[in-house]
Structures are given as C-alpha cells and as structure tokens.
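Risk register update: the risk that structure generation would not scale has been downgraded. Supporting records follow, first protein first.
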Amino acid sequence: MSDPQEAAAPRAKTPTFEDLPLDASLRRGVREMGYREPTPIQQDTIPSAVEGRDLIGTAQTGTGKTAAFLLPILERLLSRPRGRIYALVLTPTRELALQAEGFLRQLGRHTRLRGAAVYGGVGMADQERALRGGAEVIVATPGRLLDHLDRGYVDLSRLEILVLDEGDRMLDMGFLPDVRRILNRLPTRRQTMLFSATMPPEIVRLSQEFLHDPRIIRVDPTTVAAAGVAHHALLVPSEFKTSALVQRLRDPSMTSVLVFVRTKHRADRVAEQLSRAGVPAAVIHGNRSQSQRVRALEGFRGGRHRVLVATDIAARGVDVEGVSHVVNYDVPHEAETYIHRVGRTARAQRRGEALSLVSRDEQMDFARIERHLGFTIPRDPTPPGIPQSMPAPPTGRRTHYGAPRSNAGPPRPRSAPRRYSRY
C-alpha cells in the first residue's frame, strides 16, 4: 500500500506561456503559432531576459531558442517609440536570418513592432530602405551588416539589445573578426545574449570580453537529441546508399525527409539520383544562390519536394514544420553534428525519426556517436537486393576522414580550416 502522504502530494504544475512575464499581445501570437508549453530553454531564459540581464544559453538546434530571445526583445520594446533600431540579432547564415525574421513577424503580429532581415546574396537597395524605414529589430549576417555600416545606411547608436545566435557556427564559418568589428561599433551600455550549441574557447573569451555578469543557462545536449526522436541505423556499403534510401522512401510515413550529406558535390549528385528514381528532391548548399535556396525551401515546405538534400552549414537555418525523417546519408565525424542534424525533426517536443546509412568506414564514427548518446541505436534489416556492410576492423586508429590508419609512420598533417565567404 502506498504512503498516504505521498499519494496526497500535489502534482507539479505544467508550465505554460501564461506563467511567463509576457504581454497579452505576445501570448496571443504564441497561441496562434500553435505553442502551449514553453520549452526548457524558453522557460529558463525569458524571465531573466525580460529583466535585461546578460545571458549565455547553451542549447542544441530544435530547442526553441529563437523564440527564447525574440519574445523578451518584443516584450522590452513594446513601450519604446517607433522608428529606431533598438535590437540586433547576429546570425551566421541567410536561412537563419530569414527564419528569425519570420518568427519575429509571427510572434509580434499583434504589436506595432517591425523587423528587417539583412543578409548577403541579394541587392542592398531593399535592405537599405528597410533599415531607413524604421524597423525596430534587425536580424543580420555579419558581413552584410558591415557593408551597410560602412556605407552609413544603418544607425545603431540607440541599440539596447544584442543577440549573438549560433556563436559556435559563426566561429566555424570564420565570422569572429567581423563580429568583433560590429561589437566595437555598438553602444557599450546594452543587454547582450549569446546562444551557442557548444562553447569552444574562442566563444568563452568573447563572452568574457563583451558580456557583463551573464546568467548561464544550459540544456543537456544528450537529452535534447533523444527526446522525441526514434533512432535507426542501416549498415550498407557506400555504393549502395542511394539504392537503399530509394527503397526506404517507399515507406508512406516518410512524408518530409531531410537528407544530410558531407559535401556540396555529393548533395547535387544524391538529389539528381533521387530525382531520376522518381523521388521529388531539392538541394541546398553553400554554392546555391539565394533565389535557389528560397525556391528549394519553399518547395520542401509546400510538399512539392518530398526530400531536401543538404549540407550541414546550409541546413543549420532550415526550419520546417513537420519534418518526418532525418537521414544521415553520410555519418558525421562528431556526435554534436549528429545532434544538430536529428534536431531538425521532433521540433519543439514533437516526434520524428532519424535514420543513419552506415558504411564500413563510418562504423567507428557511429560507435562514438552511440557512446555520446548513451545507448545503442537499433540496426534495421537491409532492404532486398542491398548487401550489408561488413564490420569495421578492430585495429588501427581513425583518421578525420574515416579510413583506418596503421600505426606505421607519422600522421599526415591536417590542412587549415576553410574560411567560408562572409556572405
């Protein structure tokens, strides 16, 4: 028999957006977007951000951190006079800038606050008009914002709030010098919020230099990756991956599939192979123009393309409701990258599936991912006519590029990390 005192203990109240310090107009916008309960990063971030505290948020893709910083921005600016730039969100890619500006528009639809997205790959005239036209919140990529600052198109002298989103990705893409140039041109008295999936030393130093007594908020990456995602693996030789994927796509439950590959060339090739096999597929990567990216995303969101093939950098900004499956066509080298990828499905506490196509040379990387997650991912049976990849050899050290390496001779030096265009 259970303890009567324990049985009578009240249940913990499920948090809602009504419990957060937000204006009724913002809660109405949240409800109309279909959200009822705040995610952990939103629940922990919003109260302190509304108070004006500096923050460092460590959370993975898909945890709802965009709304976690946009809602406090809107709340703090509700009473400000219109027509001045009070808040700036710096983000590494065009897709993330467009995504955040779209979220801002939806969350603030019942307010008079306006936003503008500023990014490269398109003409500057429309952006200049938006900047001069009095948007209160600017979402920008670092390189294009510097172009506008150098030409005198944007006045940030009244800025009160700065958000650095995806700090580790900006570091990976070589944007840190541009970010420092921008920070040195902003008012020193401001609220600064830094969000990053990981905290490499360079990001830690940046936060120590530009943030004042920040509150640190962490969301465990392992629980984020596991929550709502059913993980599967398929052991298949590299040359049979496309054939295996085509067969798996016969499953009618795979309605909206995001396929991750390692390189731009591979993305083009896989999308072409899928299209030839009768599977409507679009592609997105760093060499695609802005109009091509927008068409691909709109086709994927609208259902014209059942599959979107993407590289990691390009897909960081993909935010599509209802992605049913994420497919790791190429297994990533790092567990953190795996978590970023699978976070594209099961968004905001929904459910989704992640399938990894694991070749012989990728099995050691995949084992490292499983150790990070803390569980063994089940292996699915190979489709008819597809051979199963052989187990990886137990000896030999792993190179960064996936091939086992004997201990004879010194390792080959790694090349310097590639710096991506600031646009």
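Supporting record for the second protein:
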Amino acid sequence: MKRFWLFGLFLAGALVALNAPAFAKDTMDSQDSQDMTDAMDDVNSALGSMSSRVSNIEDQLKLKFYGDVRLRYAFITQNSNLAGVTILDSSRGRYRARLGAMKDFGDFSANFRIATGANNNPNSENNTFDNAMVNPTIDIDTASITYTPAALGGHVKFTAGKMANPLTKTSITWDPDIQPEGALVELSNNDLKFRATYFELVNEAAKTTPDQFMDNLQLEDAFKFDTDTALGVMVGYEYIPNGTSLITTLATGLSNNGTTADGNVLDHGLLHDWHMGEAMLTFKHSLSGLPLKWTLHVTDNLTGSNLPLAAAGQYSSKFTNQYGLWFGVDLGAIKSAGDFAGTLAVASLDPNSQLAYLTDDDPGFTNRQYAFGSLTYGLQDKVQLKISQWLVGHEYYAYLAALGNNSGPGGSGRNLESITYVDCIANF
C-alpha cells in the first residue's frame, strides 16, 4: 500500500502546484492580488527576455539548442512462483536531463548532446532520488558530424560518430536510450530510403582478435493514398560476427553473460555469426479526425536455433527461440496544451531473437513477453504528463522447462510483473 500513498501524494503535489496561483489569488485581498500579478508579470517578462536572449544567441552563433527534463515516479509489483524466492514491491523517483546543440556548416552539420545517467551504461539515462543526494554523472550522449553534399541534391547523407539511432526500430530491436557509435550512409528519394550502418560494439585494444561490430541494412518506402492515409514498408538485415565471443568480452555482457538465469545467448560455443532479418509494416490513417498509426514489426534470428539441451554438447533444433514480435497502435498526437495521445501494444522477445544488451529498456525487455499502454496529456505547450503501464512475463529457453525453471515450454520462471511510470516531461 505504501506505493499507492506515495503515488497519491505525488499527484496531489502536482495538482497543488498547478492550481496554486489561482487558489492564492482567491484568498488574497486586492492589494496582495495586485502585488502577485505584478510579480508574475515581472517573471513572465524575465522569461520572455531570457527566451529572446537565447534566440539572439542562436541567431548570432547559428546554433540550435534542444533538450528535455523528465521527472519520473515508478513502482513495480513483481511476484515469483519459484520456491523460496520473494521479490518485494518497489517504488522510486527518477529524473533525466539532456541538453544538445546543432549547427550547420554548408554541406556539413554537427550534433552534440550531453545527458544524465550512470557512467558507461548506455541503457539508461536516468538517475534515482537516492545515494545521499550526490551530484549525478553527465555523459556524452551524442557527438556526430553529418555530410550531405548539395551537389547530389540532398539524396545522399553520411554520418559518423556517436549518433542518434538512425534505424527504423521498436523496443524489440533497440533500447531507445542507446546512441550507437560508428558510421551511416543513407540514400533517399522522397519516402524511399536505403540505409547501411557500421556500429562498433567492442574495440579489441590488444588486436589479438578483430573488433566486434554490427552491420545493418534497411530499405523502406511509404505509399501515400491521401493526406491522412499511408502504408509504410521496411525490410532489414543485421549481421554480427562471432556472437559467441560477445558473451565473455564484456563484464556486463552484450548477452547478459549467457547465463541461464538471465537468459539470452546460451550456446556453449556453437553460436557464431549473427544473421537477423526483420520486416515492419506501418499504416497511418485518421478516424473522425483522430490520427492512428498501426505498427507490425517482426524479427527472425536466422542463427537462433543453435540451442543446447540440458548439458553442453547436446544440441537440437527442436526449440527455435529466435523470434521477436511487436504489434501496436498509436492514437492522437501532442501538438499543444490540452491534446491527448496514447499507445497500446503487445510484444514478445524470444531468448535468441536479439542481443539482450540492445533491448534492455527501462522496464527490462530482455527475453520477455509484455503488454504495454500509455496515455499522454499536454499540460502546457512542450510540457506533458505521461502515464505508462507494462505487464511483463519473463521468457526463458523452452528446454529449461524440464529443469524446473519454467512453468512450461516457452514459459516463465515468474508470475507477471507490473511496472507503472508517471512522467512529467518538459521539452525545450
């Protein structure tokens, strides 16, 4: 019950903050009310002056500043059906802050952004309200240069560095906090786009073995029927050499060290090159003025069927834990204060469908099946309140059912996990 009291206090505090000026005005005498009005006018004038100065800086330096601040209250209910295991409910406050700048230099443009988050943890830009109120780490979130030669009509783009993820994706392929490092070539003609990327995963300093990397190819197009209706199609391919070496290369492991408890790549040395195909269909339309976007995203790790049985050296293709699935709908859009938007989706990640490291989003999407829903409301222009809810089931290798780690083939070692986030987001 504690988390519900905390959640109630959180909402009550937000409502008080939003209504405080009106309440104060009603309870003050006319002189006090006028004083407050004058003070608020001074604040608004100062804010306007500050905005004007920032605009002048942008004009003079030709810089474009952007960023956001997010406050989050999270609570988790996670029960286990494993004998002797008890996982208590938890709740915590978190925050994220990001600030970036962009500048054009003719055919070149540069992008730079810093963000909060744990050092050397690309999966989360959050900091938690704890640890004796120490100052948080500030990390390099993006640092990239893009070259778009005007002589080619803007149809070719080259980007290198630590970049905002250029791939078309959902949470079954990429954690949205990860900003990959490497290079991109993109060819485009209207809605037709072809992308080729090289992302470095591990740089082998000793050079006794080749660097570990990932290559991606994506081809997508959109077919427009009218101003509100369009069908998007994307096909892609992902290649990672020597997937086995990634299990032991990093202490944290691109695949959670391949342990049974964490799931993912448990191959006893037989998982070599990683070949994953993907396809995505999107359908945008309007229903009584409400914009809708349906998304179906399917992945297949073509090498994901090299699964062991109960002991090393025993293999079978009977179980093929290699597929990823996302199906969802986005409703509405936030353009100004008072607007609503929402998302409803279901998803599934088999243990070998994608490297766990790449799909470990804030709620934890590694080897899991989940249902997701969110509702966003525009409090003010560029200020939003968002409530998100997940129901998550942990999915392990199918063969582990015989070892008592699953409730059944393809099942889970735990009951459903409920995760709720309440976010207040300010964009600037």
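The CA atoms of residues 127 and 135 lie 10 Å apart. On this basis the risk owner (M.S.) recommends closing the item.
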